[in-house]
Amino acid sequence: MSPSPPPPPTDSPSTSTSALKASYSSPTNKEFTYSTPLPPLSTSSSNPLSASLSTVDKTAYLSALMQATSKMQEDINRELTKRMEEDNLKAAAVSGEVKGGMKVDEKKEEENYGEEVVEED
Q1: Distance (Å, rounded) from C-alpha 114 to C-alpha 5?
Q2: Cβ atoms of residues 34 and 72 within 8 Å
Q3: Chain centroid to CA 90: how far?
Q4: Nearest to residue 40, comparing CAs of 13, 8, 72?
Q5: Which letter does DSSP use for residue 59 in this model?
Q6: Which is nearest to 74 in space by CA: 114, 110, 26, 20?
Q7: What CA–CA distances, in Å, run from 86 to 49, 105, 113?
Q8: Is the dihedral of CA 101, 102, 107, 108 positive or negative?
Q9: What is the pLDDT along the chain (121 residues), one digit of tens a residue?
Q10: H/E element holding 56?
Q11: What is the domain partition of the chain in residue ranges?
């Protein structure tokens, strides 16, 4: 028995639900997934982002998407920072807070993050 073909598309309006999703995986950390629902967008089934949407509807949807994206970025950054701090604590415990034979100055490391520092003897 062969599967039946899908029904033909119609132009009747429908409401689609969508979500903004992101996943993170690492060989050393627990995986996490971020997901937040987006507001429904009334569309026609044959053309999901058709011109039938009003400018107000499109603007509202894009505004919600932008807010959700900003919140997602904040949440992911917070989670990754927490994991980085945990990794640093684990590494410090293993190495005894020694880096190249010298004790790590966390404040100095933070001030010079991303910069090449030439230390004088």
Answers
A1: 56
A2: yes
A3: 25
A4: 13
A5: H
A6: 20
A7: 43, 17, 18
A8: negative
A9: 445 555 444 444 555 678 999 999 988 888 999 999 988 876 554 555 556 778 888 898 899 999 999 999 999 999 999 999 988 888 888 776 555 545 566 777 777 776 776 766 6
A10: helix 55-95
A11: 14-110
Helix (H, G, I), strand (E, B) or coil at 18: strand
Q: Are the C-beta atoms of 21 and 34 separated by less than 8 Å?
A: yes
pTM to 2 decimal places? 0.57
Strand partners, 38: 18
Q: From CA 79, how far away is CA 73, in angstroms rounded? A: 10
Provide the token pair at 3: 């599967």
**Nearby residues of 21 by Cβ (< 8 Å), 6 or more positions away:** 33, 34, 35
Cβ atoms of 74 and 45 closer than 8 Å: no
The amino acid at 54? S
